[in-house]
Amino acid sequence: MSSSIPSRTGGQILVDQLVRQGVERLTCVPGESYLAALDALYDSPIDVLVCRNEAGATMMADAYGKLTGKPGVCFVTRAPGATNAAPGLHIAEHDSTPLILFVGQAERRMLERGCFQEMDYKAVFGSMAKWVVEIDDPARIPELVARAFRVAMQGRPGPVVVSLPEDMLTEMAEVADAPVVEPVEIWPGLADLARLQKLIWEAKRPLVVLGGSRWSERARREVVRFAERFDLPVATSFRRASLFPADHPNYAGDLGLGPNPKLAARIREADVLLVIGGRLSESPSSSYTLIDIPQPKQTLIHVYPDPEEIGRVYQPALGIVASPHAFASALSTVHPPVEIPWSAETKAARADFLAWTDKPTQLPGEFQYGEAMVWLREHLPPETIIANGAGNYAIWVHRYWRYRSFTGQLAPTSGSVGYSVPAGVMAKRQFPERPVVVFAGDGCFLMNGQEFATAVQYDIPVVVVVIDNAMYGTIRMHQEREYPGRVSATSLKNPDFAALARAYGGHGETVRTTAEFAPAFERAMASGKPAIVHCFLDPQAVTPAKTLDQFAGRG
């Protein structure tokens, strides 16, 4: 009897699994090691974005995972291609982003001989990925790809690496497709919810902190309703500000690098601290100073989808193993007390947030970055997506932009430089109807700015604001504090970024004064092209509040 399952190449089986799992787009840098998969993609409905560097391609995939909650998918070639992808993998691991990296591998008969570009991916990525697997039989592709999707999404999300030997992808096999994978939602128990209600009822100074991944727009709405019913002050974790609308009267601000001192004090002084989805790692905890380890002074309620993270650093009074989506759905069964004694504190927290983010401090130079941020805040719509990488330039973004829409913030909690341009390109490809503004320092842009060419190739009209202070600003700030007056390896000589945009085929603007910013930005938006707005920032203006001289004790 002949089989009803057609014989397919490994490459075709692989792409069929991606289509079945709902992959709508992926990123890649092509390589001869997975040509059979590229050939199968030719006839598939998947949108393939060809990138210029594997780091940019993997960061785009990470951005897709952040925006959708589904695994971002990226293909790279073996060895040099795989190692170039490592920064994106680290971001996904640190940020708890679902991502699957497919990596070409040498032919099976060549392995263990030190052949051309051979690499042991389990050894290289074992500490960075949730799971690393090499598929040596095309008949196992459906099984292992389905497992890769589940591992990437379930529990604490993260990256998975799948190695694809070149000859395996050209070998024929008869195998059925795997079923569609959905992550298991872990729901809080009735006893957990009863205990949660009791602890909040006993509170005088409660505070909620939102973070992590596995959120949905519905979960966000349900947490907002919960905060309203209990009149709770709500803060967001480092670079997770869009988990709660900044224009809501219960929003108290974000816990990032250099947070509002009044918000930090509220964390320390809270008697009940409800942490939903986040880990309160180094950055949001101000280097682990806001909460005592291992026994917090606050009554800590920690909600997280992976039991291994609960109690890893802080021992909670109540640990609840649940995804944010499931936990938020159950909050309607938790009821507020008849009298709410902390309402005045909630109003004070809100007032402190507004004061902290209202008027920027005047700093040296003709271009006042803070005033430009306030102008953007007042003129761009709520659905705008803001992408940034790492660097002191991002402090202005976090402080003065107020995130109002879900998925409005794309930024690496890992502190990876070079993230913003590829992330912004993916955001605009995924949501072409939403304005997407990328912020990058001069050093940050030149890490992965080559993906501006990807935006031009696919007509993705993202606007990139380059903040140029001719140095690696964060490192220089620390250098001036520790070794004042001894500048070493932190100065930069940069290209004309506006001219570079035009050379790529995009639109370029140059801004040297505050007055020039608004019209330049409006022209960039109106151009309908990928655009760069090159802004010159005085090197002294390294943070919204302090200059280099002040960090060095000279101010």
3D structure, described in words:
This protein has 555 residues and is an alpha/beta fold. The protein has 3 domains: 7-174, 3-Layer(aba) Sandwich (Rossmann fold); 190-354, TPP-binding domain (Rossmann fold, 3-Layer(aba) Sandwich); 359-551, Thiamin diphosphate (ThDP)-binding fold, Pyr/PP domains (Rossmann fold). The protein contains 22 helices and 20 strands. It has a 6-stranded parallel sheet with strand order 3-2-4-5-7-6. It has a 6-stranded parallel sheet with strand order 11-10-9-12-13-14, sandwiched between helices. Strands 16-15-17-18-20-19 form a 6-stranded parallel sheet, sandwiched between helices. Helix 21 (514-526) links the parallel strand 19 (507-511) and strand 20. The longest helix is centred in the first third of the chain and has 15 residues, at 54-68. The protein is globular, with a radius of gyration of 24 Å. The mean pLDDT is 96.
